[in-house]
Amino acid sequence: MTDSWVNSAEILGSDLPLELSGTGNRRALLMDALREAVRSGRLAPGTRLPPYRSLAADLGLARNTVADAYAELVAEGWLAARQGSGTRVAERAAPVTPVHRPRTPERVARPVHDLVQGQPDPSVFPRTAWLASARRALAAAPDDAFGPGDPHGRPELRRALAGYLARVRGVRAAPDRIVLCSGAAHGLRLLAEVVGGPWAAEAYGLPFHRELLASHGVGTRPLGVDADGARVDGLTRRDRAVLLTPAHQFPTGGPLHPARRAAVVDWARATGGLVVEDDYDGEFRYDRQPVGAVQGLDPEHVVLVGSVSKSLSPALRMGWMVLPQRLVAPVVAAKGEREQFSSATEQLTLADFIESGAYDRQVRRMRQRHRRRRDHLVAALHARAPHVRVTGIAAGLHAVVELPPGTERSAVRAAAWQGLAVEGLGDYLHPGAEDASRGPRASRGHRAGAAGTAGGADAVRAAGPADASLVPHRDGLVVGYATPAESAYPEALDALCRSLPPVSPLAPAPPPPPAAP
Asked: Is 243 a residue whose pLDDT tops 80?
């Protein structure tokens, strides 16, 4: 039976319009419409279809017509039917029109193992303690906490942070000097708007931070990095600010030498410049005494930027800036009239979490856990790859595995073959940094940011080599040992060891691993 027929209905439970139009057998028209809905992705694999009686009533068709269409599509593999669960779109019936996304050749397949630095294992987030703080915070929250908000951030959290940072990091600040933000990156954006450029930055650092500053019109130029941290003798009067990681240089490791801490503060006082201190993992130290914040030396010339991304989770999107008094109002103005980045209830929860002692307990637990992870890494490399050297391990959540010259790129490729995600040290090198023996290194790794021009006669320099932007050549891997789940960590280390280059006959004997505590 054929005729010219047009009808439409919505498939129950999916709100998907199903249009039947044309001349021909009604069962065939229904089957074509269902196939097209699956092909286009409007009916995703696993979607449950309405009972054939309901669809027949909506479309004005005979029940047998719909039942036969379902049965035939099941036979063709478009649908799947199971007793008690109804009829669904088959899992293998994927749309034939894919969404076009840019190809990323270096990461075609998802890695099996992850040793990329930057975040703690998400499974160790203190859910129970956080929930208890959330309940207490909500019960005690004042009514204005549920209003538009203050761009400074909740006063409860600013008070809690002022006490905590003074006690743990040696920070000198009253609550009115603290402005809350959604993380370190948000803080840098605000400072870039208020301070302007150019900035100096450590030759090794996060490319993301350099990209972020460049996107706000702030160019950066590199300061060399050695065993004592950043070469601050390379700062000039033209630099409006300098971005440093003094407690644990990222990613090479090691604190900024005390003489250089004093020198960078002297530079800021003499030139009116600003020291931006990224205190990204200052709480995690293992084989040394705590290193206080540079901010404590001169609160009027240093901004301390911190967050809970390493200590709790980056998903909370909470950070802070401890500002010189003169910058508080401009930063708040740049942030905007209404607080729109961090939830007020999350801020209240974090305030309770700190004041109840839960934050200190979590940091202590994580410090012990990360130290065990670090010791496991060092022991595994000493046993299976004794020709490599592990550095930057006295603190933090990552280590640098130093490699023979010229082997970094091949080691990263070998890791990819092992299903391991890990990054090369060269990926973090500033594009403006130069190696005295090898020339420009802008072709290595991922490159971002803008290089400024080195200063001339007005440079504020201490004793040292003539050009503090020169960086000795180093090959290595940046290994984030805090990232994997506990059960996945041994296999990740095994993949790392299999990825390392063979021993070089000219390589010096490595030092023994640190003794267990």
From this structure: yes
